């Protein structure tokens, strides 16, 4: 029973235990046939005692088995220590892994916030660029670093100017003068924004815009005249409001001409989109030859808008460095009365004949 109990305790080292056991008892046992497999039983082996087993022999066997047990216990303790060390290292690796994941998520969130901020700043920069340049030109400039000048024919150019600006500016403080110009030009920007018109620039008290570029269209002449009428109405209401307050006011002249131009940007610092050509000069002459509060257009523009707007021919007017030019005042948009179908005559009512009673 003692031997069986000792053998049963050698669970992790069965094969080595069996070898040690047979090494010890071989001198005193004669084994003819023994199944040395881990599942062997003493009932399947023919064991013959060679001699009586003295007490010293049993003591030696127990000592051998005890030393083996001690060695196995020491190995088991070493394995437990190693297992604990590996568990601790695994725990540290797990903590490091969790910290890495949390750090990665924090970095991703920070990058997402940064990307949102960058997108917002990029939109601000793009909006600012679009405030200076047409969309097509701005896109070309961003992609290639430069923009090629292009010819457009025809387009319609509009110049506006304030009468007596120099005299009025001398009677206003610088702040009041700039505020008055800003109020008027902001209104012009809003009006021009209603149509496919490109604002080019302001030069002192002059406002320059053009239709038909950079996106070519066939309505440019009508668009500019319609915008001019809106500006004319705004300036009239602005004048009345100023008169009620007893304040100084501007009175406007508007000139419009149609023809070819070259458009593009030049330079690398403080560049701006601009237009060049005789059409621009002629539009300026239309404005300078205009009467206060009126819209003066050339014959070229009149030919494109005469079906939509009521115009009064002024005749040929001498323009500086241009000779005599046909000019027209725009009175307003043509009001077309709808044609009604003639009424059908009513059929005469039948008179009923009643017999006298």
Give a topology summary.
Blueprint: H1 2-8, H2 14-25, E1 29-33, E2 46-49, H3 55-132, H4 135-144, E3 150-162, H5 165-171, H6 174-192, E4 197-203, E5 206-211, H7 220-245, E6 252-265, E7 273-276, H8 278-288, E8 295-298, H9 299-305, E9 309-319, E10 323-333
Parallel strand pairs: 6-8
Antiparallel strand pairs: 1-2, 3-5, 3-6, 4-5, 6-7, 8-10, 9-10
Shape: rod-shaped
Q: Write the CATH homologous superfamily of the largest domain.
A: Nucleotide cyclase, GGDEF domain
Largest sheet: 8 strands, mixed
- Proportion of strand residues: 15-25%
Low-confidence stretches: 1-13, 28-52
Q: What is the CA-based Rg, rounded?
A: 53 Å
Helix/strand-derived class?
alpha+beta
Overall CATH architecture of the largest domain: 2-Layer Sandwich
Total number of helical segments? 9
Summarize model confidence as the mean pLDDT.
81
What is the count of distinct domains? 2
The rounded distance between the terminal residues' Cα atoms is 153 Å
Tell me the helix content: 40-55%
Number of strands: 10
CATH topology of the largest domain: Alpha-Beta Plaits
Instruction: Give helix and strand order, one letter per element, not per position.
Output: HHEEHHEHHEEHEEHEHEE
Name of the CATH first level of the largest domain = Alpha Beta
